[in-house]
Amino acid sequence: WVQEEAPDVLCLQETKCAASAVPAELRELPGLPHQFWCSAKDRPGYSGVGLLARTQPLDVTYGIGDPEHDVDGRVVTAEFPSLFVVCAYVPNAGRGLVRLEPRLRFNAAFLQFLQRLDARKPVLLCGDLNVAHNEIDLCHPRANRASAGFTPQEREGFSKLLDAGFVDSFRHLYPEARGAFTFWTYLGGARARNVGWRLDYAVVSRRLLGALCDCKIRNAVQGSDHCPITALLAI
After folding, report:
1. How many C-beta atoms lie closer than 10 Å to residue 4's C-beta?
2. Does the annotation place 128 within a ligand binding site?
3. How far apart are alpha carbons 129 and 151 in whole angstroms?
4. Is the pTM of this model over 0.70?
5. Strands 59-62 and 123-128
6. Of 89, 118, 133, 137, which one is the catalytic site residue?
7. Is 89 a catalytic site residue?
8. How far apart are CA 48 and CA 50, in angstroms?
9. 28-57 pLDDT, tens per residue?
């Protein structure tokens, strides 16, 4: 599917894989020779992200400059001539919201990080942001008001991101689209019944809207409890 899609940049989240253990078929993927992997320190099989690019970035950085969160391997950023591409796997607040406070601290630090980038050049943030922003973004909002990914605090964090000059590209283009989900639990045949959540986003700096052509949810692509999304920009 990746070869058919032929992306300029491929962002992967929750890789659970150290750079040294990336499978050969991914290392050798045609058209994406520039590969950058960020994994959790001393926690094999936890978190992790990867960014693969068709052309060599100007610069690549790992983390957000926050020691509490950078050890988890959640963010890799590639600078290109016209924009930054940020690949992020935002922490889950956990069952029973046991990790809600660390998640909120991540939100605050991550927003500051994105604003620092945005002050230099536009940003495209791609990733599993582990939040359904509005009721339209999950199948059963009433039943999940106290669930990780749909708490008022997490939703407010995403609102703050938008208020800071960023745009949810899919919702900007398709404000009324329902049933547009990117995650389905493996339990209970949720995917077949489309009982899902929209947790994966392409968020752009507002000044990139003129370059935004489309944002597509590729919900027919199998292989994970998430599906890919594709952001198309003319830059």
Report:
1. 5
2. yes
3. 13
4. yes
5. unpaired
6. 89
7. yes
8. 7
9. 999 999 999 999 998 888 999 999 999 999
